[in-house]
Amino acid sequence: MNANAQFSTLILAALPELRAFALSLTRDGPRADDLVQETILRAWSHADQFETGSNLKAWLFTILRNLFYSEQRRRQREVDDPEGKRAAGLMICPEQQSHLEFEDFWHALGNLAPLHREALILVGAQGLSYEEAAAVCGVAIGTIKSRVNRARTHLMTLLQIEAGHEFGPDDILKAVIGLDRPDAVND
After folding, report:
1. What is the pLDDT of residues 88-135, one digit of tens each?
2. Is the four-CA dihedral 108, 110, 114, 120 of positive or negative sign?
3. Does the residue 66 lie in any domain?
């Protein structure tokens, strides 16, 4: 019998005792089975570290015990978040993408006709109502609405945006382009 076959036979003989030990630690059958399986995998991957003639069961029990306590430490740091709500609140969008999107936006804004750009900035960036923007520009409300709509449409074409979710995390830029409002496309 070669060394691998002998090692395999010794491990198989230790399985019932390993499972009993794992059950005593976890008090959970499926978790104990996972722990035993991980122990066997670790033992096989580190078989070259096992010294022939030493106590294989003690070595396996040590691996199992270390795995159990490592798992316990990891679980203490984990937060139960099955739906991912907590993780979603911790998510931070990368700054470099936002910066690049702003540069693209700034360039596209410069390509708008001055009257369209003015109307869009007053309504989108400054937050003025259509009535207030119309008074500032000295035109009818319908004219401001038309200019804002044309500016938004042209910006979306220049930026190759088809839907609001494609535009980055910056709320101000979304407001300027009108993607923060449900009626943005129909202005």
Report:
1. 777 666 666 667 777 888 888 888 888 888 888 888 888 889 999 899
2. positive
3. yes
